[in-house]
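Narrative summary of target 7.
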Amino acid sequence: MTQMTLGKALNAGLRQAMRDDDRVVLLGEDIGALGGVFRITDGLKDEFGAQRVIDTPLAESGIVGTAVGLAFRGYRPVIEIQFDGFIYPAFDQIVSQVAKLHYRTQGRVKMPITIRVPWAGGIGAAEHHSESPEAYFVHTAGLRVIAVSNPDDAYRCLRQAIASDDPVIFFEPKRLYHHRGEVDLEAPLADAAPMGLARVVREGTDATLITYGAMVSTALDAADAAADEGVSLEVIDLRSLSPVDYDTVAAAVRRTGRVVVAHEASREAGVAAEVIASITEHCFEYLESAPVRVTGHDIPYPPAKLEKHHLPDLDRILDAVDRVMDRPHSLSPASDTTGAQR
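Modeled conformation, tokenized:
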């Protein structure tokens, strides 16, 4: 096992994928000489050359359109969207072409495109630099949507995404780029858990806390704090947002009977709503209380000085746990756990 940051793990995953398959090409703004804004592609142009690590114009729709053409010709393009909020100019290409071409051609045309997206908040960035657009893509049939939470998953899931014949939206929590963890660089990719499976990060008996991305760390902190009060929380890292591994989720819910789902994105029509709806449909008889969502508020992402009030934190998660456990809770209505503040 090798200790490395999540950012370095992504770099290692890209490097290994390019070594394994010369059809893998990288496209993005400033990814070559600069190595990307977050230096995820640092050194790859030197090793693989400008024909495989391609600096593009500042035109996200053009980048995705070029990747579609490359996929038609048998390549496996990996796109870097510089920031999450910059993906919207490419939205038409992604939902109208990338997600549909395989289906439209009855399987004759594959779209093995990986779209890497530095994602979500917590870094004090300017407007358009801290978005959580995952629900748009989860709703789009034909796309896989992955959100990693640690360096080992970043390394392994990125390689799996690039090797997949399906188009993948690959969300990277930018506030964890410098988070360190152990990565097994030697294990065969075939031995790794598929990127579509959820992971039980911590076992528990009293309630199930379901989340993904950077919120996994917050959820583990909440589980530690809850344990001090005698409450045992099971923490599930979804990893895949489309498709969701409902077998793992349902098994956890049947063990605990209580559910909290947390994410940074806004509450309305978010991933938490879909997860809770499915749990209610398939595990209703096991539920001891109504599931609770802990989310960002239904507002445009706030200025940097206010983002700590927008992002779900340990106190809001613990308040939700108190609700599902039918324990007294202390947060005021202005700090509504659901994030429904308008």
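The longest strand covers residues 259-266.
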